[in-house]
Design brief:
56% of the residues lie in helices and 0% in strands. It contains 4 helices and no strands. The protein is globular, with a radius of gyration of 15 Å. It comes from Salmonella enterica subsp. enterica serovar Altona. This is Bifunctional acetaldehyde-CoA/alcohol dehydrogenase.
Length: 82
């Protein structure tokens, strides 16, 4: 199984040409409203970019971003791991 969208053979130029539309489509998807916190389109775009390039997800990094609002549970968990 490829570790990234790039490793699956998608050309970078093709992906970048469509990433904004993909982000908007993900935001408009009916499942998005079921999330505990409604994501920003910019956050969805970042997830797609990280997935394309195969960047690993580290939970503490998301809470460090200024535009991300952490839930009290996430803040408590972040303090414990620090």
């Amino acid at each position: 199984i490829p570790k990234s969208i790039r490793e699956a053979g998608v050309q970078e130029a093709d992906f970048l040409a469509h990433v904004d539309k993909l982000s908007e489509d993900a935001f408009d998807d009916q499942c998005t409203g079921a999330n505990p916190r409604y994501p920003l389109i910019s956050e969805l775009k970042q997830i797609l970019l990280d997935t394309y390039y195969g960047r690993d997800f580290t939970e503490g990094e998301v809470a460090a971003k200024k535009d991300v609002v952490a839930t009290p549970k996430a803040e408590k968990k972040a303090k414990k791991s620090a």
